[in-house]
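Model: Ready when you are.
Researcher: Fold this.
Model:
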Amino acid sequence: MDFTPACYLQLLQAFRARRYTLLPFGDYMEGNQPGPLVVLRHDVDRHLEAALNMAEAEAREGLRATYNFRIPAFRRHADLVRAVHVLGHEVGYHYEELSACRGRASEACRRFALNLDLVRSVVPVRTLAMHGSPLSRHDNRHLWQHMDYRDFGLIGEPYMDIRPGELLYLTDTGRRWNDQRFNLRDHLGPVPGPAWSSTPDLIASIRAGQLPQQVMLNVHPGRWNPPGWKWMREWAGQWARNLGKLILKTTLTHARQHT
């Protein structure tokens, strides 16, 4: 059964069997990582309990990852965020100020500075990654046209600091692997990587040695649930969200063709 915790661990084990080093994004940005590697990253959009469960499972395997939390998590669930940090994982900031401010750049810049202070009052943070905000027409990465996150002592943002072709980007956005039909912004560069129909298919490619030496794996913890009602809820909810994304993407494409 796909998108279960057991399936996720099989995915990690497949990488380890091929002697990939799995590491957080901040460690990658610091460099000096020999051999094949996987930048292990999690964008926590919702379902924080699933993120903690995944963090605990990875810690039992001796693995460290980057967990990017949105601002409500730092405000309302600081203890859970701290628990992920105590397990040895890196905590990053999943920012969305530009979409939250409806494109008002000056307001978004002020809010980012205030939010980052709040974030760092909970745990140390050195990296960040934009939230895709698929229902907004504003791309949160455009915030950096008006300010520089490095001025805040942040060392990396994957959508800004990873060059196209530098590594293979794998994301489960849309509860699929690199399926661009349901992916509005979660990709690096203009050319997306190959797609796989299922996690077992991706695992087979890893075992066959068909992946490059450097990979970024972006896994959303809320999509991975044990068989049962939570699994069914996520499957049904993602199906509906994918339909909405497909309609939105078609509408935006049609609008661009007529402007």
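Researcher: Now this one.
Model:
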Amino acid sequence: MNETKIKILKEDKFSLVLSGGGALGIAHLGVLSDMQELELEPSEIIGTSMGGIIGACLAIGMREDEIYNRLQEFSSIFNWLKLSFKGNAVVDNSKLYNIFDKIFTDKKMSDTQIPLKIISTNLKTGKKRVFDFCDDIYIKDAILSTMAIPGIFKEHIIDDDIYGDGFLCENLGVSEASYHNILAIDVMGINSFETNMPDNFFKTSNVLEMFEKSMRFMIYNQSQTLISHSDKDIYLIEPVTKDYKTFQFDKYKEIRELGIGLL
């Protein structure tokens, strides 16, 4: 990003938009580190899935290094994985709830230092649901909703409605921005997929890689459509995440580095 854009973000209010992307979302931290050095502070934060988790931490006043230390809990799958043997998902959320409960305690969406919006999907209607300061709910409930990938993480219930991951509706929440200037970090952008086709010895590996690549294509095109229809100034940052998988939380050190030096 050039000095002119940085100057605009310093002088004017701007929305910070953090995309979803599983472990790839740890790259957001590298950008946040640069933002702290440049003393860039958003006037609101909008996050989906992993972007919602990191955005919520930032919104309650945590520094980048604090968030990084907390996310290390995800580096070992045994810290958060609890298999579910009933229902619609593979993972039970009880361990995740305990992690988020330690971070956010009883803070509600209205208790943040920076206004926060978290994007989720209503699994009854398929419609987008944006949790913000007007909602009388705990931050941890909004987070458990936005990260609940259908079939993987257990869906989350709030007031009799059932919610799942926000990527189903809007992985990069630019349409929810209140300000004309937007700093958007998309870890599922153009740099998140290889141009060549999988060529592994085992067909199973090729099939899995094709599935993940297809998902990245779908999410990328969704975000590009939203960007193209926006009349706001969007400063888009797309870390090069193509060499990592969305489940590689053990690579947190390397993935964080992907966001360094992009401002």
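Researcher: Key takeaway?
Model: The first strand starts at residue 14 and ends at 18.
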